[in-house]
Amino acid sequence: MSNKQTRLPRPVETERTPLKARKVSFSWEDTPLHWVPGDPFATHTINVLHLLLPAGERWFVHVYKQVLPHIRDDRLREDVIGFIGQEAMHSQAHDEVLPHLKELGLDPTPYTAQVDWLFEKLLGDRTLPPGKARKWWLMERVAIIAAIEHYTAFLGNWVLNAQELDRRGADPTMLDLLRWHGAEEVEHRSVAFELFMHVDGSYRRRARTWATAFTALVFLWQRGARFFMENDPTLAAGRASFKDFYVSGKRGVLPSTPDMLKSIPRYLSRGYHPSQEGSTEQAVAYLASSPAATAASAAEKGTV
Ligand SMILES: [Fe+2]
Ligand SMILES: [Fe+2]
């Protein structure tokens, strides 16, 4: 176990939010294929989340269950357990969008089969003997998750503030799914990084796994957007390019490319701490007003 957490930069916010999974559910029957009206490219670029997150977040949960015995801090263990509950719910909620896309003529299975292979086989447990090799692979995956969570927090913060989507009349159910998820990503944004610093914390590993995670995310995302655009039954010659992404970012319907580039040196800075990104206050305020989260909380209290 490393003692490198003594070098961990102090979080910006000292208030700690106990993490709990909100058992949300969404009805998709009224959500149109192009839920950002008139903008299939922005719709499908965001839809890539539904392709990657079910398998990706299931994999987070799988890895974190293995790391629990390595945690020597009760508060962090509690946070990791809360994180596991939230990610399991996120995975399920995005998975439930896929049958609706299929009904609208967009069968995601050819793509999700590849994503499942990536997370279950390539990033799976592998047949490693107990000991050093197995521990190395576990730490590598914990570091990859910390890097991915830098981007889920970035995206969560973006979608909470993406008022252009409201102005364009984006589907309220999809917006609530994205903002409920985004708010919980902001809420638990420090957990993966603090866990990595607690069990390993090596800067070389942080930088190396950031490069792996970033490259994989860019590759999977552009491929997923192209997959949706090419298979959209309403588009004669649907295409997706980096220029479209850049332009949509400038218009505010997708994250901006300069903002994404600026987030890279932040993660690689030795003074980085995820609490410097986004606002817990804003995330908690959204969760207090989210239709799905408030319905889940009322159901839990037995008031509906
Ligand atoms: Fe998530
Ligand atoms: Fe997360």
Automatic annotation (TrEMBL):
- Molecular-function GO terms, alphabetical: hydrolase activity
What Enzyme Commission number(s) does the record list for this chain? 3.-.-.-
- Read off the InterPro entries from this record: UCP07580
Q: Which Pfam families match?
A: Metal_hydrol (PF10118)
Give a yes or no for keyword Membrane in this entry. Answer: no
Q: Does the keyword Hydrolase apply?
A: yes
Q: Which UniProt keywords apply?
A: Hydrolase
Q: What is this protein called?
A: Metal-dependent hydrolase
Q: Which organism is it from?
A: Streptomyces lutosisoli
What does the organism's lineage look like at the top? Answer: Bacteria, Bacillati, Actinomycetota, Actinomycetes, Kitasatosporales
